Amino acid sequence: MKLLEREELLTSLQVLLRNAAAGQGALLFLEGEAGIGKTSLLQTFAEAQRAHHPVYWGACDALQTPRPLGPLFDIAAQIQGELQAALANSRERLHIFSTFLHELARPPTLIVLEDLHWADEATLDFLRYVGRRIGRTHSLLIVSFRSDEVGPAHPLRLVLGDLATSGAKRASLAPLSLTAVRELIGAGDIDPEELLRRSGGNPFFVTEVIATGGARMPATVRDAVLARAARLRPSARAVLDAAAVAGPRIEPWLLEEMTAAESGWIDECLATGVLCAQNGVFTFRHELAREAVLEALTPTQAMSLHRMALQALQSHSATAHDLARLAHHAEGAASDDDVLKLAPAAAREAAAKGAHRQAAQQFARALRFAPSSSALRAMLLDDYASECQLSGMVSEAIQARQNAAKLWHELGDRDKQAMSLARLAHALVVSGKNAEGEATMREAVALVPNDTAAAAAVVRRWAAHLRMLDRDVDQAIQEGELAMAAAERRGDQESLVHCLNTIGSSLIVSGRVEEGCERLERSREVAEQMRSDSWIANAYVNLGSACGEVYRFDLADNYLRRGIEFCNERDIDFSRLYQLSWQALVWMYRGRWTEASGVAHVVLADSRSPVIARITALVALGRVRARRGDPAVWEALHEAQGLAGNTGTLQRVALMQAARAEAAWFEGRPAEAASEAAAGLELALRKRHRWFASELLFWCWQGDGSLPGGIPEFCANQPFAMEISGRWQEAAAAWRELRCPFEAARAMTEGDECSQREALAVFESFSARPMIERVRYKLRSSGVRGLQRGPRESTQNNLAGLTTREVEVLGLLAQGLRNKEIGQRLHRSSRTVDHHLAAIFTKLDVSTRAEAVSAAYRLGIISAKTP
Amino acid sequence: MPRYLVERTFPDGLGLPTNAEGAKGAAGIVSNNAQEGVTWIHSYVTPDRKKTYCIYDGPTPEAIRSVAARNGVPVDRITEVRVLDPYFLY
C-alpha cells in the first residue's frame, strides 16, 4: 500500500537513525489513534533501512494479561545469542536488560517496539531502563502506542513522564488530508468529503470503506470491517473467526489445526486482504479488524474456538510453555481445570521476572475459577495479596488478605490464618490504618499460643516490627531479640534478617545510632547473601529514615542515596518512593530547599506512592513553602494532617504537628502554633522520643510561652531545649554541627545585635521572607538604624538577584577555587562561604558548583573575561 | 491552575528594552516557562523600572521559583490571587 503524507516523518526518522549511528542513540515515542498508520509508517521505514542496518521488531499483544517481556522474546528470537540465553535461563531482570543494552552497543541498530499501550509491567520497566541509557548507544529505538488508549492513569504515562527528562523524543501521526483521501479513492465512486468527515482522515477506516466499494457509507470502522468480512463465503468466514480467536499473530499450523476441513479457505482470506502473511505468521490487516470480528462471535462460538486453540498450542512444543497465552485461551474456553493449572504457573513465572502486576492479574484469573471454601482458594488469595502489595496495590492486597484469613478460619487452619493476619496487620499500618493493624496483630498472636510452631515465628517477628513502627522501641527490641534467638536456632535466615532490621531501627530511634546502623548493615549483608532484593531495600529504607528522624542527616543522606539507587535499578517502587520522601525532608533540613521541594513533587505526582511517603513528602513541601513565605503551605499541611491524623502513630503525627506549628508561627498566629504543637506532645512524651518531644515543646514555648510538664530529663541536652533555656550559642553550635543552617540562624536571633545580623544574612541567602521580616523588625525595635528595607542592593547588572558578594564568590568559583581558598581571598570564614554558595545555588536553581558556574556564564553574571 | 502575583525588585532597573532585543528576551522567557507549565500573563512595572508586579499562571509556587531562576530574575514574594473585575457587574 502506498504511504501518503508521511514524507516529513520519514525524513526525521532517517535523521534520528543517522545521529544514532554516529553515537547519539535515541528513543522515539510514536503515537496516534488506532488505524492512523503507525505500523505502515514503521514498516516502510524499516524496509528502507534493512539494507544498511539490522532491524529488530517486537510487539505487545492484546491479551487480557500480557506475557511478561513479550516484545523482548520476539526480538531475542531474531537476535538469538546471549539475549535469548538470558531470557531463557535468567530470573534476574537486570541481567536481561543489560544484555539487551549490550546488544545495542554494537554496530547501529533499529529496534521497533509496537503497541506499548498493551505492555506488561516488566516491559515498561525495561523501557525505563533502556530509555535512560540509550543515549550512549548507536541505536534508534522506536516505540509506538495508541494515544487514544493511554489515558492519564495509564502506566505508560508514568514512563513517558520519567523518560521526558532523559531526552526521549515524541512524534505523532496526523490524519489524512482531503487530497490524500481523493488520491486513495482514485476512480472509485465515493464522495471524498463525506468519507473524510466520517473517517476523520483515519487511513485504515478510509481504505476499509474503499475496499467495500463504498455503496453504503458505514458509521464506524467496525461496521466497515464487518461489511468487508460479510462478503466472504461461509467457509472463509469460519477461517477468519478462528484467526480472530487465535490472534493477534497466528502461526499457520495453528490456524490449519483449528480450521481442519476449511483450512483450504485461508487463501481466500489472504487474497481478499483481510488476513496478511508476514514474517511467517498471519495477522489481520489491522488489530481493529481482529477486534471487530472477535466481538461479532457468539459466546459459544468463542468458547469452542478457544478450546481448540488451547489444545493445539499445548500439543505443539514451540508453544506448550507460553503460559500467559495458554492461560488466556483456558479462560476463554471456560475450562476450570486448565485455568487453575495454567494461571498460577503463569503468575509465578511473571513474578520471577519482576512483573508483579501481571502476576497479580494471573492469580486474579485463577481466583475467578477457584472453588469457594477450598484451601486452594485461600492459598491463591494469599499469593494474590503478596503480589498486589509489591506492585503498590495496597488496598487490593488488604482485601485479599482479609478474605484469605476468613477462609483459613472457616477451614479450621489456625496457623495459616495467623500468618495471613500478621501480614494483613503490616499492610494496614503502611497504608495509614494503624488502629486496625494493631487489632489484627493481636488477633494473629492469640491464634498461635504455641511458640514452637513455624507460624508463631512469622507472627512474632511481624509483631515486633509493628512495635518498632509505632516507636515502642524497648518492647520492639525485646520482642525482636526473642524472635531472633528462635530464628537462629532454626537457621531461619529470613526471620534473622527481619529481626535485625527491627532491632537496628529501634536502636537508632532510641539514640543508639552506631549500634543500630551496625545491626541494619548486618541485616543487609545477610539479605545480600540470600539475594533477597526486598530485604536489602528494607534495610536501606530504615537506615535512611531512622537516621533522618534523629537528625543524623549526614548518615541519612548517604544511606538514602545508596538505597534509592539500589531500588531504582531494580524498580522496587514502594521502597524507592518512601526513601525519596525522606530525602526531601533531609534536604529541607540541610537547607537544600529547591531540591527538597523538587523531590517532594516527584513523590506526590506518583499515584503508586504509599500513604506514608505522601505524608513525609507533604511535610517537606509544606515546611519549604512556610520557610520561604510562599503560598499553598496549608494545602500541603492540611492533606498531611488528614493522612497522618488517621494513623495516630508518633512517626507521622509528630512530623505533621511540628510542621503545622512552625507554619502557624511564621504567619503570626502564635496561639495556634502552641495548640498545633500540643496536639502531638503527649504522644511524643509518652514514647520518650527526644527529638519529637523537644521540638513540639519548643513550638509550645515559642507560641504562648508554655512548657506543658516542663522539659523532661531525656530532652535536656537537645538543641531545641537549649534554645528554650536561652543557651542560644550552644544551640547554634549544635545546629551547625548537625548541618541545619536555618535552625542555627534561628537560634542566633536570640543573641546580640551582631549575631542577629549574622542570622539575617543567612535568612536573606535563603530568601526566607518570614524570618527576614522578623529579624529586621527585632533589630529596628532595638534601635538599629540603616537596615535595608527591600532585598539587598546589587551593584552589578544581574537578573538573578545575586548580591555583590555572591557574584564575587561565583567569580572565584569559576576559577576553580575551593571554599577554603575563596574564604581566604574574601577574608571570610569558610562557613560564610558555605552560606553564600547555598544562596547562589538557590537563586540559580542548580545543585552543583559546575552547574552554578555554567548558569552564571549563560546569564551573563560573570563573563569569560572575569579575572 | 492557580494564579500568582510575583513581586520582584531590580535595584538597577529592569534590563528588558522595548525593542527587538527585548522581544527576543521575552520569547526566551516564555519558552523557559513552558517547560514547567508556567504562563506569564503580564506585568506591571514601576516608572523607575526597579519593581515589577507580574501575574502568572502556574501549577505550584515551586514552578514559579524554578522558572524565575532559569530566567535569571529575582523573586521577593509570591501571593496566590483571584481575579476581581469591577466591570464584570455591568
TrEMBL record, chain A:
InterPro entries: AAA_16, P-loop_NTPase, Sig_transdc_resp-reg_C-effctor, TPR-like_helical_dom_sf, Tscrpt_reg_LuxR_C, WH-like_DNA-bd_sf. Keywords: ATP-binding, Nucleotide-binding. The keyword ATP-binding applies. Residues 795-860 form the HTH luxR-type domain. SMART domains: HTH_LUXR (SM00421). It holds the Pfam family GerE. The keyword Phosphoprotein does not apply. PANTHER family: TESTICULAR SOLUBLE ADENYLYL CYCLASE, TRANSCRIPTIONAL ACTIVATOR DOMAIN. This is AAA family ATPase.
From TrEMBL, chain B:
Pfam families: SCO4226-like. InterPro entries: SCO4226, SCO4226-like. This is DUF4242 domain-containing protein.
